[in-house]
């Protein structure tokens, strides 16, 4: 027979506790028997990232610092802790979402092409790109904590994080975090990777937004906007490419439009399995492609442990933001400072989600 052990996050609280857990498991099982599960690696569009990148010449040839201005990876939830604050307060949004889900997505977006689709070849490349990232500093971050919105329509929306009876009234645990990550290698040097995640925001959304550089030698009087490749993870899986085109009619005006692959339209008869269903099937099949290896985990904690300790030991105060907002306004400024240009004129109509609510 065989043993396959599924380990669910959190994989420790920092590099020391994670190493202790890994060492303990290593004394009981071989690495090939361990399946550290991050359910985001089971989501359709996250699993699609490798095919999008390495199966399309038009994209693979532009996937570099010469063409891409910045990469924005977003996770937004429209609800707060809802009585789970005691658990959440122990870990916070960085440990809960950023250090695992978002960093895994970053590694798939940024890694070099593996020599095959063998799980270890893929994970080798993910580890290589993570090793090119320095530990985060406070200047790389924006931290927030939601407060009640007096204009909210429900009691929950009018309540802040500290109003949760399971949370200490003096808690400085962030419910929102933005991190600007620089990858020090030939492909990505100078391209900011902006990770942002939060609770009690204006919508539910998880996506990757690849923003290309401005077209040099503009002849359209500043009306041309940047191209963007948007990979919508949830809700409503989609892949669309924002581009400029002439407006229909007799004028020579230009407008933003998109090349759209919305799954509910193109694959409306397909049934997409739940992320955990995919991953548990992978365990039965013995495939570790979509599971986290011990050295990946070690590099992730190396990047985040110093800033987590600084926040906790120095009690760095988070910036208040209203329930149902986009988060701290400082985060928007941080995006602008790191070469992300928000085009408020554009609205995507691929599904009920509105891409103007960045």
Automatic annotation (TrEMBL):
Top-tier EC class: oxidoreductase
Pathway field: Carbohydrate degradation; pentose phosphate pathway; D-ribulose 5-phosphate from D-glucose 6-phosphate (oxidative stage): step 1/3
BP term (GO), one: glucose metabolic process
Keywords: Carbohydrate metabolism, Cytoplasm, Glucose metabolism, NADP, Oxidoreductase
Chief localization: cytoplasm
Catalytic activity: D-glucose 6-phosphate + NADP(+) = 6-phospho-D-glucono-1,5-lactone + NADPH + H(+)
An example molecular function term from Gene Ontology annotations: NADP binding
Boundaries of every Glucose-6-phosphate dehydrogenase C-terminal domain copy: 50-339
Record-linked PROSITE patterns: G6P_DEHYDROGENASE (PS00069)
Matches recorded under NCBIfam families: zwf
Similarity field: Belongs to the glucose-6-phosphate dehydrogenase family.
Gene3D superfamilies: Dihydrodipicolinate Reductase, domain 2 (3.30.360.10), NAD(P)-binding Rossmann-like Domain (3.40.50.720)
Protein name: Glucose-6-phosphate 1-dehydrogenase
Domain Glucose-6-phosphate dehydrogenase NAD-binding: 1-48
GO CC list: cytosol
Enzyme Commission designation: 1.1.1.49
InterPro entries the UniProt entry points to: G6P_DH, G6P_DH_AS, G6P_DH_C, G6P_DH_NAD-bd, NAD(P)-bd_dom_sf
Pfam family, any one: G6PD_N
Subcellular location: Cytoplasm, Cytosol
Function per UniProt: Catalyzes the rate-limiting step of the oxidative pentose-phosphate pathway, which represents a route for the dissimilation of carbohydrates besides glycolysis. Cytosolic glucose-6-phosphate dehydrogenase that catalyzes the first and rate-limiting step of the oxidative branch within the pentose phosphate pathway/shunt, an alternative route to glycolysis for the dissimilation of carbohydrates and a major source of reducing power and metabolic intermediates for fatty acid and nucleic acid biosynthetic processes.
């Amino acid at each position: 027979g065989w043993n396959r052990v599924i380990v669910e996050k959190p994989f420790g609280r920092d590099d020391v506790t994670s190493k202790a857990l890994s060492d303990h498991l290593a004394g009981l099982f071989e690495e090939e028997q361990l399946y550290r599960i991050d359910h985001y690696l089971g989501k359709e569009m996250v699993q699609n990232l490798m095919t999008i990148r390495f199966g399309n010449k038009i994209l693979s040839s532009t996937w570099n610092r010469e063409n891409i201005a910045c990469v924005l990876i977003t996770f937004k939830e429209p609800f707060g802790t809802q009585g789970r604050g005691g658990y959440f307060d122990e870990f916070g949004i960085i440990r809960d979402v950023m250090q695992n889900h978002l960093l895994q997505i970053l590694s798939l977006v940024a890694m070099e092409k593996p020599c095959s689709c063998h799980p270890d070849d893929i994970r080798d490349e993910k580890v290589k790109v993570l090793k090119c990232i320095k530990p985060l500093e406070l200047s790389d971050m924006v931290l927030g904590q939601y407060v009640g919105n007096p204009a909210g329509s429900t009691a929950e929306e009018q309540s802040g994080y500290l109003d949760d009876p399971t949370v200490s009234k003096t808690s400085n645990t962030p419910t929102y975090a933005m991190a600007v990550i620089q990858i020090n290698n030939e492909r990505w040097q100078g391209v900011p990777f902006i990770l942002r995640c939060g609770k009690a925001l204006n919508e539910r959304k998880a996506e990757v937004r690849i923003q290309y550089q401005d077209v040099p030698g503009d002849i359209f009087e500043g009306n041309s906007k940047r191209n963007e490749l948007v990979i919508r993870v949830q809700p409503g899986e989609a892949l669309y490419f924002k581009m400029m085109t002439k407006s229909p009619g007799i004028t020579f005006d230009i407008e933003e439009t998109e090349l759209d692959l919305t799954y509910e339209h193109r694959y409306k008869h397909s049934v997409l399995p739940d992320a955990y269903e995919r991953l548990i099937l992978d365990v039965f099949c013995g495939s570790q492609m979509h599971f986290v290896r011990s050295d990946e985990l070690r590099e992730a904690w190396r990047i985040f442990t110093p800033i987590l300790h600084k926040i906790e030991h120095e009690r760095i105060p988070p910036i208040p933001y209203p329930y149902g907002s986009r988060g701290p306004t400082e985060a928007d400024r941080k995006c602008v400072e790191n070469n992300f240009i928000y085009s408020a004129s554009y609205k995507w109509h691929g599904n009920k989600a509105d891409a103007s609510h960045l």
